[in-house]
Input
Amino acid sequence: MSGPLNKESLLTFFANPPKLAYFADRGYAAISTAWLKEFHTYFKGELWRKDLSYSKTYDCDNFARGFCADANEVHKEVSKGEALAIAEFHYRQDTGGYHAIIAAITEQGLVFMEPQNGDFLTLSQGEIDSCIFLRF
Output
């Protein structure tokens, strides 16, 4: 991927773009899956330092929001004025219930990551299409 991504180019990664999608920046930079894994190690350390772990008041949406915010904060030191192509992704799981994770545009295209453990996830098309909230 070369050059910055914008709202229109980001939406092309979704067969059925979410109805509720927010794009806070003009340009976005694709990131590598290796960087995401490396950053997750940093993120876990920050959670430990702040004494934050999964609870009723700090659950999946907090992990997703915190991961995106911290990633952009760290990335600003090396960016060229673009935000990361990383987003909170809220969806309905095939197994039932709603969940919040990370969606990112990488060298592999659209990838999903569980911010609570750093695992990359494979979502069904139904899960991707069920997205109720996307915020880049």
Summary: The CA atoms of residues 77 and 117 lie 25 Å apart. DSSP finds four helices and eight strands in the chain.
